[in-house]
């Protein structure tokens, strides 16, 4: 068994999760958006037509600087809400790609969408999900050669999968030898029928009983230390909506569903605050979510304006031309924004 140190994991993350973005550079005048974005964002824009005036405030001084900053912040907020955003995929590391692919396809009903091996960087990616990547939220598994075990930590919660019959799904998973950590039944303090299972690496999947849905892979649950701070960040810096907030005092937690459209049609980020828990160990297994944007440069500016920390300045990846920007939220959870046009070209 080989364990990797958090730092090693973090550097392999940069390579393995970013280098797969490769496509020709962004044209000056963009063609119509080829994605099928969520209902909220159907407007087609060009890079030039959305460019914001007064974005650079570094030349301003004194009161002027304050006035300019205020306007800029307003514009930034407006722009992130109008941007064509969608959760594209969630990236995490696994110790045995074939075992995980077998589990996700046979037990969870996902399809293997694509696989790519990067021998020079010693990793392989596999993309799996319930529909094509140009219109569905999917998982991006990373296998780093020779690394068969990771620490999932305590901050990562689970991935949510909507199924029509949780009991039947659990029976199937048991028959296939899968691990069920919470038997089917109504969620404590609520009515939704849920169950929890574990994949071969110990990542938890919550099965949620719902009617037919276009987006069965429906949640990424992360624990946060200050829910209001997180809600404000994801609203203002990321342009997400607070879709639902529910306090469960009997079980001492509050959840907030954040996303780019209604929960029944779009994958969402489920932020969980456990009373009095301010910090979590993040381990080295879970990596990040990727979100599509029409402009990584403005995305990064808006994140900075709202107190986010940019961990990779916006721009094309070296050697290839897909434009990305990366940041961490107030708890240190990472997100990569990917240029929408470049992302679609990658899939061609
Ligand atoms: C339907 C939707 O509201 C849920 O499924 S919430 C699931 C619920 N979440 C939590 O308890 C979060 C707090 C917990 N302390 C944590 O940090 O994970 C849950 O997991 N319920 C368990 C159950 O058995 O019902």
UniProtKB/TrEMBL annotation:
One Pfam family per UniProt: Glyoxalase
InterPro entries referenced in this protein's UniProt entry, alphabetically: Glyas_Bleomycin-R_OHBP_Dase, Glyas_Fos-R_dOase_dom, Glyoxalase_1, Glyoxalase_1_CS, VOC_core
Amino-acid positions noted as binding Zn(2+) in the UniProt annotation, renumbered to this chain: 140, 158, 206
Cofactors demanded by this protein: Zn(2+)
Biased composition range(s): Basic residues: 39-48
Recorded GO CC terms: cytoplasm
Details of cofactor binding: Binds 1 zinc ion per subunit. In the homodimer, two zinc ions are bound between subunits.
EC nos: 4.4.1.5
Signal peptide: none
Keyword field: Lyase, Metal-binding, Repeat, Zinc
Family of this protein: Belongs to the glyoxalase I family.
Protein name per Swiss-Prot or TrEMBL: lactoylglutathione lyase
């Amino acid at each position: 068994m080989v364990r990797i140190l958090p730092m090693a994991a973090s550097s392999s993350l940069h390579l393995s999760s970013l280098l797969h973005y490769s496509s020709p550079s962004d044209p000056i005048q963009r063609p119509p958006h080829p994605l099928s974005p969520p209902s909220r964002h159907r407007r087609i824009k060009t890079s030039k037509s959305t460019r914001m005036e007064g974005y650079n405030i570094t030349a301003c001084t004194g009161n002027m600087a304050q006035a300019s900053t205020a306007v800029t912040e307003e514009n930034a907020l407006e722009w992130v809400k109008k941007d064509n955003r969608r959760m594209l995929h969630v990236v995490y590391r696994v110790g045995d790609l074939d075992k995980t692919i077998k589990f996700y396809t046979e037990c969870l009903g996902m399809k293997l969408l694509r696989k790519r091996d990067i021998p020079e960087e010693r990793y392989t990616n596999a993309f799996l999900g319930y529909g094509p990547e140009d219109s569905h939220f999917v998982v991006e598994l990373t296998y780093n050669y020779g690394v068969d075990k990771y620490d999932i930590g305590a901050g990562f919660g689970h991935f949510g999968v909507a199924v029509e019959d949780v009991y039947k799904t659990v029976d199937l998973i048991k028959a296939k030898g899968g691990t069920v950590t919470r038997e089917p039944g109504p969620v404590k303090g609520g009515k939704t029928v849920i169950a929890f299972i574990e994949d071969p690496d110990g990542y938890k999947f919550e099965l949620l009983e719902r009617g037919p849905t276009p987006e069965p892979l429906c949640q990424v649950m992360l624990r946060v230390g200050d829910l209001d701070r997180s809600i404000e960040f994801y609203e203002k810096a990321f342009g997400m909506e607070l879709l639902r907030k529910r306090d469960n005092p009997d079980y001492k937690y509050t959840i907030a569903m954040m996303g780019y459209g209604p929960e029944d049609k779009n994958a969402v980020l489920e932020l969980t605050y456990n009373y009095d828990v301010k910090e979590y160990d993040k381990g080295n297994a879970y990596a990040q979510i990727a979100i599509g944007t029409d402009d990584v440069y403005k995305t990064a500016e808006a994140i900075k304006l709202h107190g986010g920390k940019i961990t990779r300045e916006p721009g094309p990846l070296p050697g290839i031309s897909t434009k990305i920007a990366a940041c961490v939220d107030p708890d240190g959870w990472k997100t990569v924004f990917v240029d929408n046009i470049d992302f679609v070209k990658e899939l061609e």
